[in-house]
Amino acid sequence: MSARDVVGVIESDPAAMRVLRAAAGLGLPDWWIGAGFVRNRVWDTISNLPALPERDVDVAYFDPGTLDPGEDARAEARAAVVLPEVPWEIRNQARMHLRNGEEPYTSTLDAISRWPETATCVAVTLRDDSVRLVACNGLTDLVGMVVRPSPTFDNAAGRATVRRRVEAKGWRDRWTGLRLEI
Fold it and tell me: Could you read off the pLDDT of 10-41 as tens digits, one per residue?
């Protein structure tokens, strides 16, 4: 599966495109939707499984001028008016480094590159009604169905976090072809 194939998975999914268009309508700076929104669709496609309802839609954006968490809640409320059935999780990455105990992030993509698994450090956005994809650690693990800690989580505590996530989210039950390299 190439980057174009991954984009095709998103573009061929009417529900995904509705979510992307709704997110675009929020007018958030440097916004991307990542993690399970992309990963799960790709793994379901590879595994020939029907899509499940979204557990959450992680919208990451970057606005260093507005660090009030209330802005995230207001963006979620606006998104819920457009698509109330979507479990929106909208977070300004300009302040998330505080929660994560890291140095300040420089952009949304910098923050996404620090998410737990390489196959999760992927995101899409919509620009001029065209889907754009980023894979911060490449696509190999995503399309190979490999669970590996991202560089930020490649230590004993990080690997333990990744193992807990795999178990808590039931990934091995859903995608029996996953290869864990934790």
Answer: 999 999 999 999 999 999 999 999 999 999 99
Class of residue 162 by CB neighbours under 10 A (exposed 0-12, middle 13-18, buried 19+) = buried
CA distance 19 to 86: 8
The string of pLDDT tens digits covering residues 147-172 is 999 999 999 999 999 999 999 999 99
Lookup: tokens for 51: 């899509």
φ/ψ (deg, to 5) at 58: -85, 100
The pTM of this model reads 0.93
What is the distance between the alpha carbons of residues 155 and 123, in angstroms, rounded to a whole number? 24
d(CA 74, CA 82): 13
Of the candidates 167, 152, 74, the one whose C-alpha atom is nearest the C-alpha of residue 116 is: 152
CA distance 72 to 74: 5
User: What tens digit of pLDDT does each residue of 116-127 get?
Assistant: 999 999 999 999
Q: 113-138 b/e with 16+ CB inside 10 Å = b?
A: bbbbbbbbbbbbbbeeeebebbbbbe
Helices (H) and strands (E) in the chain, counts: 9, 7
The rounded distance, in Å, linking the Cα atoms of 182 and 84 is 36
